[in-house]
Specification:
Blueprint lengths: L39 E5 L2 H11 L3 E5 L14 H7 L4 E4 L5 H9 L4 E4 L12 E2 L2 E2 L5 H6 L10 H18 L4 H25 L7 E4 L5 H6 L3 E4 L11 H14 L3 E4 L6 H10 L2 E4 L15 H16 L3
Parallel strand pairs: 1-2, 1-3, 3-4, 7-8, 7-9, 9-10
Antiparallel strand pairs: 5-6
Helix pairs in contact: 1-5, 5-6, 6-10
Amino acid sequence: MNVRRRLISAAAVGAVTALGIGTLTACSGDGAAAAGTGKFDVVTSFYPMTFLAERIGGSHVHVTSLTTPGQEPHDLELSPRQIGGLEKADAILYLKNLQPAVDRAVAQSTAGTKIDAASLTTLENHGTEVGGHAAAHDSHDDEESGGKDPHIWLDPVRYAQVARGVGHAFAKADPKHAADYEKNTAELVERLGGLDRQFRDGLAHTADKVFITTHAAFGYLAERYGLTEEAISGLDPESEPSAARVKDLERMARADGVTTVFYETLVSDETAKTVAHDTGLRTDVLDPIEGITGKSRGTDYFAVQRANLKALQRALGAK
């Protein structure tokens, strides 16, 4: 494995459970329950899950995200209204261990269909090695989770695996619309396959293979396309790196010909700019797509991923 990065907390094992039918209408962003929409009502934890639910469900679903646009998802806290809304959902689609508040609420919820995206694909431990030595765990939570990486949606292949599982779960829970869910799933999986080919072709021939990010989110993407991610911070994108870590990155950047320090749209770029200034590197955006805002380089998952590909091609000297 050629992914050098800090250990981060996991999306652990979950299961798609038996169906349950309820009714939920919500104000976007607060997840509050109200009386019937006449649709299959899905509560999602954050944008990558929302995108799947909307694309697969189409006109048959009403989707409410617990994380509002522009809100950093890792530190999400839920209101009592949102927690109450989960009880009336037909299905909950989430990624276990990424958002502790969501995990607690889902565990307490009596909703019949709970879909943990992490259970629909394989997760891996992504470690960091700096100067030949394994880095320490980023937090106690990392140790408890075994270092499993939850950022599965940034790898189009794993995201397609999740999409298939979500489509199957929707069809089981809402069988009268099963044919449409299956059709929508097939179309989404085909598009993700096309995106995978774009990344594979676009990154096949690059001058460099190493890139630096502020947030340890791109391990699966790096592994899929033969790259190496060096993360300044671990799971928490707002955590401050140690002086030793910055020095390690400076040495690595010189040795590996790194040109760019990437930052993301939902948190401050101060750390990236500081490291870039100290190392004489450029800065650019590599978006973990945890939410779409007016600052995003695109209006949906596919558009932002294509922007990510272009950013990587620039930074790595694609030929």
